[in-house]
Amino acid sequence: xxxxxxxxxxxxxxxxxxxxxxxxxxxxxxxxxxxxxxxxxxxxxxxxxxxxxxxxxxxxxxxxxxxxxxxxxxxxxxxxxxxxxxxxxxxxxxxxxxxxxxxxxxxxxxxxxxxxxxxxxxxxxxxxxxxxxxxxxxxxxxxxxxxxxxxxxxxxxxxxxxxxxxxxxxxxxxxxxxxxxxxxxxxxxxxxxxxxxxxxxxxxxxxxxxxxxxxxxxxxxxxxxxxxxxxxxxxxxxxxxxxxxxxx
Length: 248
Fold this sequence. Notes:
The chain is of the alpha/beta class. The protein is built from 10 helices and 6 strands; from the N terminus they run αβαβααβαβαβαβααα. The chain has helices at 6-16, 39-54, 78-87, 97-108, 121-130, 147-153, 174-184, 203-211, 215-221, 224-232; strands at residues 24-32, 66-75, 114-116, 138-146, 164-169, 192-197.
């Protein structure tokens, strides 16, 4: 199958055509399983966007403050999620890619600056940079990650002027990232920044809530349209409600 980002370009076009010549645009890219996409995924983009639009210190030297910030959310392939489920001895099958993509569209339908990305981050950024309509704009790419992922892979070691990171704080992991980035000399530079922590929303807890159809828990963790689709299609809903008490 040939992948393209037509949907992404169509969604971003109204925002980009309003910008003046020489404007800087931050591009946030993230890849995840999103099985299913939760409020936390979208909140990560929202928090990073607010940081980038409010802190000129994160603009590369010689770059004006960001006039816009766009979010590109990509999905891990089905095979990698299946392996993850098998390692964790989870009995269910993961939600397939096309359905996870549909759920991202539902969760971001009312967010004009956040969209599903079908390409690798580098390719998606390159497409925007090479689009003749946006030659008057300057795009600056940031990799968006949770602190747990950054700590496991010590991603601060890869931070540079051409490889920028925004790390979302996460309980029990934030301090590890701060220590590592500080020792490596990249903390709070234009190419590595750590934000405040966000409330944890565990994908495992979401799947448990879906299995026992705990609507109160789902309201806290999922966009209403995502929750409704999952319930309607009985995603992970075959287990008795005995697990409901574990969510509280």
